[in-house]
Amino acid sequence: MHTVKAIQPTHAGNSCGKKVSQVLVKMTPAERAELESIAELEQRSLSGATRIMIQRGISQYKTESLIAD
Q: How many Å apart are CA 54 and CA 27, to the nearest integer?
């Protein structure tokens, strides 16, 4: 299993100028390989692709939670 280590929140901005922080994510080698493939396909960094996937997952979660209520 691969681990991306979380460090103290950073005050540096991202490309949008917003403050960002880091999060620890553990995944299997297969999950990481799939994410790396997506990042390459979309011409993004691994971090950028991961952030987009998380944003999409949050949006989907909110949609599905509203349906379940």
A: 14
Give the Cβ contact number of residue 49 at 10 Å: 19
What's the CA gap between 35 and 54, in Å, rounded? 12
Task: Evaluate whether 24 touches 3 at the Cβ level (below 8 Å).
Answer: yes
Q: Kindly tell me if the per-residue pLDDT of 38 is higher than 70.
A: yes
Would you state the pLDDT for residue 66?
80
Q: State if pTM tops 0.70.
A: no
Calculate helix-pair angle for 29-41, 46-68, nearest 10 degrees.
100
